[in-house]
Amino acid sequence: MKSKNITDIEEFKSKIFEDERGYIEINYENESLVVKKSFSVANVFRGLHIQIPPHPQSKYIWVEEGEIIDVCLNLNAESENFGKLKFINITPKNGIFSIPPYMAHGFFSIIPSKFNYICKGTYSPSNEISIKPSAKIFKKLCSENTLIISDKDRKGIEIISALEKFKDLKW
């Protein structure tokens, strides 16, 4: 085994994007992997996001601090759970969750929270779809009046449109 010297060590500078909701920090990104962290103040909803083929992303997620309600929408038309929403309360006491690429994903911060992601597959804005949270999601999380959400997510497609769009997609 050949040893490496100190010059073989690579340093990666984080990119941080901040707004009134908190921040997203991209720690590492290459053609097959993205490592990022976010901090969200209470009542922030981030998502629902999904990337379509040829650039889908699976995710490994966990909460470092705080408490969230994780929200997933199954968009695999071959699944008996197609179109169903899943809500999971996650705290630092829970482990790591694996989110398959056919699940649109988002989360709601119940209290100020640090949330970590490892995404398999690179971020591809041209393949990303934002799905607008439905009244059912608002009802489950909190009232729409207290929800803090980005303009991008508020302007996403409706869930019914997403189901139509994904009904013939093969993962």
Oligomeric status of the shown chains? single chain
Major β-sheet profile: 6 strands, antiparallel
Helix/sheet category: mainly beta
CATH superfamily: Jelly Rolls
Measured between the Cα atoms of the first and last residue, the distance is 39 Å
Please provide the count of β strands.
Answer: 11
As laid out across the biggest beta sheet, the strand order is 1-2-3-10-5-8
Write down the overall geometry. Answer: globular
Query: What is the share of helical residues?
Result: 10-25%
Domain unit count:
1
From the alpha-carbon coordinates, what is the Rg to the nearest angstrom?
A: 17 Å
SSE succession: EEEEEEEEEEEHHH
CATH class: Mainly Beta
Q: Could you say what the CATH topology is called?
A: Jelly Rolls
Query: Uncertain regions: pLDDT < 50 for 5+ in a row?
Result: none
User: Count of helices?
Assistant: 3
The average pLDDT value, as a whole number, equals 92
CATH architecture: Sandwich
Work out the strand percent: 35-45%
